[in-house]
From TrEMBL:
UniProt KW keywords: Membrane, Transmembrane, Transmembrane helix
Transmembrane segments: 7-26, 46-62, 69-91, 111-129
Name under which the protein is recorded: DUF4383 domain-containing protein
Keyword Membrane: yes
Tree of life domain: Bacteria
Length: 134
């Protein structure tokens, strides 16, 4: 098993944890915000589970599948995080299509709300493009 396959399996775990955040007592506040920073709904949970299953299949399948997952997933999540900083909403959950732009904001809450997608997406893109196809 290659390092990229192991990383894809790590993404499976991380994404399943993300999908479970709303269901762990004490992690959401009275406003439904996870860690008091961002809200997750059933669409976000479905997106995280679908991405996790993609990561699992890619990680178990092959180095090439894991690399493709990391690049494609990474670009999608990184782009979603960038849109989140610029508009307040991402595109993966269709938020930019269903909400008016909240405008560009580099406040700490906006950055923290988008940091998971920026970080996970950025790491995946870097790892996928850094590795050589096998």
């Amino acid at each position: 098993m290659s390092n990229l396959q192991k990383l894809a399996l790590g993404y499976f775990v991380a994404l399943m944890i993300a999908a479970s955040l709303n269901y762990i007592p004490g992690l959401t506040d009275e406003n439904g915000l996870a860690f008091g920073i961002f809200s997750l709904d059933i669409y976000d949970d479905a997106l995280h589970v679908a991405s996790a299953l993609w990561a699992l299949v890619a990680g178990l399948l092959s180095h090439r599948a894991a690399r493709s997952f990391l690049i494609l997933f990474g670009l999608a999540y990184l782009g979603d995080g960038i849109f989140g900083v610029f508009t307040g909403y991402g595109f993966l959950d269709l938020g930019i299509f269903t909400n008016r732009s909240a405008g560009f904001d580099v406040s700490l809450p906006r950055i923290l709300a988008n940091l998971p997608h920026l970080g996970l997406g950025g790491l995946a893109v870097w790892a996928g493009f850094r590795s050589s196809p096998e």
